[in-house]
Amino acid sequence: MNNTIGNLLKGLYTHIEKNNALYWVIGFQVFRLALLPFMGLMPQDAYYYLYGQNLSLSYFDHPGMIGYLLRFFTDIFGTSVFVVKFADFFVTSISLLSFYKLASYFLSFGKLQRAMVLITSTIFISILSFNSTPDVPLVLFWTLSLICLYKAIFKEQKGFFILGGIAMGLAFNSKYTALLLQIGLFGFLLFSNEYRKLFRSPWMWFGVLASVVVTFPVWYWNYLNDFASFAFQSSERTHSISEFKLSPKYFFGAIGHQMLLLLPVLFVVFVTFTFKYCKKVLLQWRLPQSKTLFLLAFFIPTFVGFFILTPIYWVKLNWMMPSYITGIILAGMFIRKKTLKIQVLFSIVFHLLVSIQIIWYVAPIKSDDTWVGWEELAEEIDVIKENHKDTFVFSNDNYKTSACLNFFMEDKVYAQNIIGLPALHFDYLGDDLSLLDGQNALFIDSDKRFKNDNKLGKHHPLLHKYFDIVTELEPIIITINNSERRKFWVFHCTNYQSKK
């Protein structure tokens, strides 16, 4: 057995030596594409698909770019889980091509190949390829912004400041963290003796103005809606940070997440060169040469900036993703072939384990953040509705169950605003809930810790505020590969009154 494993590893090493980066990039992407048909709908897929089906200048919890992309692909190719996943895969593949173009400005051919293998082997590319989130278009437009800014600054093609501004605006229309692009640009110019003069260039300011103009729809939507999205994204987080409560689990959790997304080898390389450059700047006041400074300007504020917050705030695993673009280019300058082999081996093993989980679902996920069971749930609810005529369906988990059921069911499914709770963008769909007055409803509640087939035996206290009678029905049990994997409690509620 040991000899077999040893021969396998030696064979992989040999393949890595003999084959170029293109082989590995195509291999990883073909592998991801082959997994798409096995991927079920994720709640995020369904929620941002809902964005696209309810077109708006912007949305409550994020700008709308991911929704627009999903609308574009489903209008052309039809609505299916595969098409939604393919949209993510396609856009992420374009991001990889854009990364290649950007990295070619900074790296020799050999190092460029290593950088391409590094980025393609990461788990973060797989996540972007499989799951609809605002980070999918954000990473693309972030990379395109840097390409344009490079040409404007280092090639002195001033018109690219305008194109760069447009790309930065589109990045902001994808996710608010794109504001770090302007911060990176100003930071680079401020610290660069050679290019600080560009602060006096009208072209640079035209580019900034272009970025603001492109973001106008987001600002205007917020203006019309009392700046609800900006408040949602900032107020609670600012309050949590201002409390300054140290929590080691946040810090170590962030490290774990980043090691997962980048894999341990690349994460260690990131930490190593970050420490090296910060030491030179802070202790020796030695700034790197201009091109390296450019890469750092779009890496340090995002990667290090968010890491500084981790001891006092739970930083989500995807917030640092844009920094990976220039971070991996910097890593390509340092990483050796032997280290790259280890990174690829880590990646192959991890992706094989992920594929086993995706196809056979061997390890149950105690969360609604899963790709299994949603279509089966919709079918079971349709059966229940046959026995309970003229009922509407709603759920109470912010968006997940409601969004997934909306994707698979013909009838509209409502969220927790039915019982007076905030419901993210469901509150902004323009639904007149009073039209449901007098109707009966089915309330669906997920049992995330699924231990048995029993009824819950109680119900949400707010149900009685809006309904006359609440009766628990038999729970829905979802079977995956001949095993009971998910459970949903079902409640029949009579005579809805929206104004109670």
Write the layout of secondary structure elements.
Elements: H1 2-18, H2 21-35, H3 43-53, H4 65-77, H5 81-103, H6 109-121, H7 123-130, H8 135-154, H9 159-172, H10 179-191, H11 202-214, H12 216-224, H13 228-243, H14 248-262, H15 264-284, H16 290-297, H17 300-309, H18 323-334, H19 337-360, H20 374-387, E1 391-395, H21 400-408, E2 413-414, E3 440-446, H22 463-466, E4 469-472, E5 476-480, E6 483-494
Parallel strand pairs: 1-2, 1-3
Antiparallel strand pairs: 3-6, 4-6, 5-6
Search tags:
globular, 7% strand, alpha/beta
Describe the model.
The structure is a single chain. With 500 residues, the chain is α/β, with parallel strands linked by helices. It has 22 helices and six strands. It has helices spanning 2-18, 21-35, 43-53, 65-77, 81-103, 109-121, 123-130, 135-154, 159-172, 179-191, 202-214, 216-224, 228-243, 248-262, 264-284, 290-297, 300-309, 323-334, 337-360, 374-387, 400-408, 463-466; strands spanning 391-395, 413-414, 440-446, 469-472, 476-480, 483-494. Strands 1, 2, 3, 4, 5 and 6 form a six-stranded mixed sheet that branches. Helix 21 (400-408) links the parallel strand 1 and strand 2 (413-414). Helix 15 (264-284) crosses helix 18. The termini are far apart.
